[in-house]
Every structure is written in C-alpha cells, then in structure tokens.
Amino acid sequence: DIINYEEFMEHLTREEQEQLIRYLPSVDSSKFPS
Question: Where are the alpha helices (DSSP H) in 1-34?
Fold first, then answer.
C-alpha cells in the first residue's frame, strides 16, 4: 500500500513524528516539520 505521509503525519504528535524519523532513516526528514 502507498502511504500518504502528509495525511498520515497529521495524525501523529511531534514526539511520534520524531520517533518515526528516528526508526525510518530512509524517510526524507525534510518532509516533516522540524
């Protein structure tokens, strides 16, 4: 399945976003607010 990251991330808290970025280094972190 293709995940719409923007839609998906809207449902996550900042902490969850940071954890997700930490566990998925292949994800382009520039897509997420820092």
Answer: 5-9, 14-23
pTM value is 0.37
Cβ contacts of residue 26 below 8 Å, gap of 6+?
A: none
Which amino acid is present at 26? Answer: S
Distance, CA of 28 to CA of 32 (rounded, Å): 8
- What was the pLDDT predicted at 28? 62
34 pLDDT above the threshold of 60 = no
Amino acid identity, position 19? Q
